[in-house]
Amino acid sequence: MSGKQRIDDEPAFVLHSHAFKETSLLVEVLSRNHGRVALVARGARRPRAALRGLLIAFQPLDLGWFGQAEVRTLAKAEWQGGQPLLGGQALLCGYYVNELLLKLLPRDDPHPALFDAYQAALRGLSLGPPYQIVLRRFEMALLKELGYGLTLDLDADTGSAIIPGLNYAYIIERGPVRRDDGADQGIAIPGRVLLNMAANDWNHPETLSHGKVLMRSLIQHYLGNQTLQSRRVFVDLQDV
Amino acid sequence: MSPSSLDELIDALRCLPGVGPKSAQRMAYHLLQRDQRGAQRLAAALDHALRVIRHCARCNTFTEDEICARCLSQKRDASTLCVVEMPADLNMLEQTHAYHGMYYVLMGRISPLDGIGPKELHLDKLLARATDGSVGEVILATNFTNEGEATAHYLGEMLRARGLKVSRIARGLPVGGEIEHTDAGTIAQALVERRTL
């Protein structure tokens, strides 16, 4: 088997898994150097399988796999540790992040920087609330890595720098334009907030509230007609 | 039997978890060629079960009656309610002979990525059961998977908000477990959740 088909000791996280055949598991993982990969873990659902309890989401693993088809075969998995198990609200935020990766990141598209952003997000979630900053940073990194990078510090019409004291409207796939010239389309955001977002500085509450609206619209735009199941479940959970 | 009804049978068998086209074909040939009496028994049992089995009005597990025998038993402690994911979990807890209270079977777990939330699990039924006045403590015995934890978290919040005492089963090393032979994840969590002596 050539070196290309066999991968060893690859840092990875399980994003989601499904039962597959009698005793196997079909696992979607995010790996550092090979992007999102689908793996079959043979026999992982047997009662005493060594892989049982190991292939769980949000835990750093070292994985080895082989194969050339779209779905590879898991050869080895090692627990890396150091990431506390997520609980409560942090766990639900983790599901949201995983669903974004499953729905927006194509398979076999390597993004080491995105892997690092994901790892940082999980660490952030395990430190406790507030989780919003962690989510906004991850969403920004995800959009940037997917090539939808946002220009937040330049006026999309004139190319000149955003002025803190003016009001802008963010138009998806175009960028921020002066509110008074851009009619009433787009998402209204003050210039100072755009500049804070561009600097990845989320400490001000108004940056967070505008950021949430902007990210939600952008992500829904790139998801197309797919719905985020995790978000729907959270909304239902708020009512119980 | 015409080939189309054979195809229909093979297709029907594929509704079973873990049964693909090959296994379904093997099962169909076996039932038709080698074990027709077994096939008749299977068909009758399936038909009968579908007609008589329903969910217990109190604990939600499978039963043939409105309320199952366990929920009607006078010998059980009505003040504790143990919430489990599946009937198999209930059977396991019964085997311990360490629990004598009542049960509620969720018949699943919250799984946001699969779109399974409180509506799909009919959590309002559990809420009605837990707040019917007889229950003092709810023990959450969902699995120690991410989905089981998410379920326990939400049930905990929901039930505590209604003034109920809520507890979660403990986790750590198995009985007779040696640290040397235990997986790292379990030991890491056992350290996080250590208790003072």
Report on the structure:
- The complex is a heterodimer of chains A (240) and B (197).
- Chain A has six helices and eight strands, in the order βββββαααβββααα.
- By secondary structure, chain A is an alpha+beta fold.
- Chain A has helices at 88-104, 112-126, 132-145, 191-198, 205-223, 229-239, and strands at 6-20, 24-31, 35-41, 61-66, 71-79, 167-171, 175-178, 187-190.
- In chain A, helix 2 runs antiparallel to helix 3, helix 3 crosses helix 5 and helix 4 crosses helix 5 (205-223).
- Chain A is elongated and about 65 Å long.
- With 197 residues, chain B is of the alpha/beta class.
- Chain B has a four-stranded parallel beta sheet.
Brief write-up:
The complex is a heterodimer of chains A (240) and B (197). Chain A is an alpha+beta fold and 240 residues long.
Order of helices and strands of chain A: EEEEEHHHEEEHHH
Global outline of chain A: elongated
Span between N and C termini of chain A?
54 Å
Helix/sheet category of chain A: alpha+beta
Q: Give a short account of the largest sheet of chain A.
A: 5 strands, mixed, barrel
For the termini of chain B, the CA-CA separation is 71 Å
Helical content band of chain A: 25-40%
H/E element string of chain B?
Answer: HHHEEHEHEHEHEH
Query: Rg of chain B to the nearest angstrom?
Result: 21 Å
Number of helices of chain B: 8
- Number of separate structural domains of chain A: 2
State the secondary-structure class of chain B. Answer: alpha/beta
CA radius of gyration of chain A is 20 Å
